[in-house]
Specification:
Layout (H helix, E strand, L loop, with lengths): L18 H4 L3 H19 L5 H13 L7 H6 L13 E3 L5 H10 L12 E5 L14 H14 L9 E5 L5 H11 L7 E3 L7 H12 L7 E3 L7 H12 L6 E3 L6 H11 L8 E3 L9 H13 L5 E4 L6 H12 L6 E4 L5 H30 L1
Parallel strand pairs: 1-2, 2-3, 3-4, 4-5, 5-6, 6-7, 7-8, 8-9
């Protein structure tokens, strides 16, 4: 490895090549990264985000050897200085396009010996494209994140968890993120909840990217204005073709057709463990509940299902109870309490029986190993 930096880094690529810097402890790495961030802010003529700088300063102090802090215990453990500081990067105030770009560009200098960036959380930082001030639009912010994600690779930040919530992202922003997902291999968790303009087109764009992605495990699209067309696309490209373990779709308007599209895809899915369809306006449609019953029956991976806040008719609740009895792997099964008391109690009792049965099996297995 060369002892010199190889020129100006490309977005998402690590600029640090000096092995002495690679092995330096976090109390030195954090101020170095902060200084680089401040240089980029000066280049774009924006002020550094005060809360972000204070967070970095606080972390740098906490990692000093003389500080009585658990972080130093980790540093002195078996993994030494290579143990990655899990610094959650949380932004929750309005940001201009230039301020957003400064933050994203600074990630090119994220210390390589930290292995991964644990979480980047962006809450209410961006606005609509029609905003009158200089606030970054949600779609422009998504474009900047897209440039970072598609470049993020094994020798870079390896961002694992990304939240962009209440940022007024639309289908256009989702098209950027969908394209990034076709190339990114580090992201495990993506939360785009409460972006109500995502809609059917946005869900479709994300699905087009996710069907080529094998590493994302958890996707949250709660309260994103997705209707039945989006539900069908989610079934086709996300449930059927992706490798997700958890899919959260609470608070949309999938309706009967959307639920049927998702339910029909469950038969082809082998990775989904948790499915959240709460508050989606389908419980009174018997054909949707029947399709969901059939989908659950043909799926062997699900262990947790949330159908809360969907008013189920008695015939629908009975269907779900019967299929639940044939699926002992399902240990969590939430339905709206506004169903006939007897049916509600039976469903609760059935899931409890599944949990108890699993515990007994685990105890028997432990005894056999001891013998």
């Amino acid at each position: 490895m060369s002892g010199k930096a190889s020129g100006k880094p490309k977005p998402g690529k690590n600029a640090i090549k000096d092995p002495n810097i690679l092995s330096s402890p976090p109390d030195r790495e954090i101020p170095r990264y902060r200084a680089k961030y401040e240089q980029i802010c000066a280049k774009y003529k924006v002020s550094p985000i005060d809360k972000f700088v204070k967070k970095l300063n606080k972390e740098a102090v906490a990692w000093k050897p003389e500080t009585n802090d658990r972080r130093f215990e980790y540093r002195m453990g078996d993994k030494g200085g290579d143990f990655p500081p899990n610094i959650p990067l949380i932004f929750n105030e309005s940001m201009s396009f230039a301020a957003t770009k400064a933050v994203i560009d600074s990630f090119a200098f994220w210390p390589s010996n930290w292995k991964h960036m644990n979480i980047l959380s962006i809450w209410r930082c961006w606005g609509s494209a029609n905003t009158e001030d200089d606030q970054c639009s949600g779609d422009d912010g998504a474009m900047l994140v897209h440039e970072f994600l598609k470049a993020d690779s094994s020798d870079s930040c390896n961002l694992q968890n990304l939240e962009i919530i209440m940022a007024q992202i639309t289908a256009k922003g989702c098209s950027y993120l969908g394209r990034a997902l076709t190339q990114n291999e580090s992201l495990k968790y993506l939360n785009l909840s409460h972006n109500r303009e995502i809609g059917d087109a946005g869900a479709t764009a994300l699905g087009e990217g996710l069907k080529w992605n094998s590493t994302l495990e958890i996707l949250k699209l709660e309260y994103c204005g997705i209707g039945w067309k989006g539900g069908e696309e989610i079934g086709r490209n996300i449930v059927r073709a992706s490798s997700l373990k958890e899919l959260h779709l609470k608070g949309n308007n999938l309706g009967s057709k959307g639920i049927q599209g998702i339910a029909q895809a469950l038969a082809k899915n082998m990775t989904l463990v948790h499915l959240d369809l709460a508050d989606n306006c389908f419980g009174i449609h018997l054909e949707a509940v029947e399709a969901l019953r059939d989908g659950i029956e043909t799926n062997d991976s699900l262990t947790s299902i949330d159908l809360n806040l969907n008013s189920l008719v008695p015939a629908g609740a009975t269907m779900l109870l019967e299929v639940l009895k044939t699926k002992p792997k399902i240990e969590v099964f939430h339905i709206y309490e506004r169903v006939e008391d007897d049916l509600f109690e039976q469903i609760i009792a059935e899931t409890k029986a599944h949990v108890d049965r699993k515990k007994k099996g685990a105890k028997k297995g432990g005894k056999k190993r001891k013998d």
